Predict the structure.
Amino acid sequence: MSYYHHLIKSSAGYGALTTAWITATGETDTTIISALNTLETDLTTYGLTSKMKYLYPFVGGTAVKHKYNFMNTALKQLTFSGGWTHSATGAQPNGTNGYADTGVSRSDFTSLNSLSFGVYSRTNIQGIYGDIGTGGGTDDFNMYSYAVGGNYYRVGGADGSQVSAGTNSLGLFVGNRIDATTVRCLSNGTITGKTVVQAFTNTQNSLIGTALANYSPRQYAFCLYADGLTDANLNNLDTLVQAFQTTLSRNV
Amino acid sequence: MKLTDITQAQWTTYVGLLTIEQKDLIVGQQYTTDSYFNPIQDLNDNWVISIEEMEYCTNVDYLWVKNLDLIIYEPKAVVNPFE
């Protein structure tokens, strides 16, 4: 039996996204494949599949595998630049010059005023570290978890800034704008929000591991971009991401 | 000081020092599969790359980065976007 025939046979029973992932990455680790398949099922169960645009599960331990977007392996593959360390527990920029260009901008979402972006961090360190987002401008979107003073989210510039209390940089953090006036952000299980009024017109590409050259040293085990998420969506996302990490024995 | 003189725990302390010509050679090039060099300037405007880029370089055209002199990394001031 050829390698490819073996792959097709072993992929039987997996969801379409998981099967495509196996084809793109050549992944053979059954723990990883099972975790991805459960992730795919959970996204469907919680009604998140159509909202989830780009998802980077950072499994496989190499840049070659970490670059892929689980929702469509042919789209928005990451370009890693500078110093990164890739391992089974995730992708870690060095805090000096490491970042990944996603190619994702606001025009890649269903609505220009409805988007979310997030990371699952496995490193607890306080500081001004850009986890994810665009690099500047008056209406940028980005996130600095556990900065001095709390978790900072900008989802449409200064007016769209949301600050929540922060005690560590571990777990899932999501910046989220539901519509033209509503920001709701998730900080490791806690949702906070505000009403905003500033127009949101940013067109920059979003990066992972930096924003405004504030390079992050945190290890990421999951990154995502989705349309705007309801509070129920955020809570369900937190649940399924934590389950995914637990299956892979890398939950924090 | 060279790459072989430091431990992994010291990777964040040091960077590899580039000439402008060396910087121009590696910009936009892969140091290993799907990973690109990203030279930056330090506080004194020296062009530098990280120890990871040197250590993990497998591109035969750029293995010379493993022999770069190391200097202590002095970053430019952090921009606080919330002030």
About this structure: Chain A touches chain B at residues 62-64, 67, 79-85, 94-99, 128, 136, 142, 144, 147, 149, 152, 154, 161, 163, 211-214, 217 (CB under 8 Å). Helices of chain A lie at 3-11, 16-25, 30-45, 63-66, 231-247. The longest strand of chain A covers residues 115-121. The radius of gyration of chain A is 17 Å.
